[in-house]
Amino acid sequence: MSPQATKISENAAGKQKAFPITLVVSAALVDSDGRVLICKRPDGKSLAGLWEFPGGKVEPDESPEAALVRELKEELHITVCESCLSPFTFASHTYEHFHLLMPLFLCRKWEGEMKPIEHPEIAWVRASRLSRYPMPPADAPMIPLLRDLLG
């Protein structure tokens, strides 16, 4: 997706407004006990204090898988092979000034000791309990799908 991509939506007056589309990739890291890793957004960032799946923006000329491998290394100090990422679902959500498109990959295998580098907290949570953690509007619709998959 090019950085110039836009989504057209109508405002209250029926006029169309174009929103830039931001492509972000995320991972549902699942441990051997079937728990999912979530990360708390740091102070100073938009949606600070909410919990999210790890990941980040896809750079120009970067595949979603390559971006996720890079982001997981930068955010959590773990190494993931692209072949260990399984496409699961995606979010499509319009925020006030942009439209977010976010593929979510499942990952059950990684190397390295996990260290939260960019987040003040991380938590391993059973899918059935994810709804207890406040999440950004784009992440929240993925919870029932993970709950169905992981029980």
Summarize the model shown.
With 151 residues, this protein is α+β, with helices and mostly antiparallel strands. Helix content is 15%, strand content 36%.
Structure write-up:
This protein has helices spanning 64-76, 142-150; strands at 6-10, 16-29, 35-40, 51-52, 55-57, 85-94, 99-107, 122-126. The protein is globular, with a radius of gyration of 16 Å. It starts with 5 loop residues before the first strand and ends with a helix. A hairpin with a 4-residue loop joins β6 (85-94) and β7 (99-107). Strands 1, 2, 5, 6 and 7 form a five-stranded mixed sheet that branches. The protein has one domain: Alpha-Beta Complex (Nucleoside Triphosphate Pyrophosphohydrolase), CATH 3.90.79. It has two helices and eight strands; from the N terminus they run βββββαβββα.
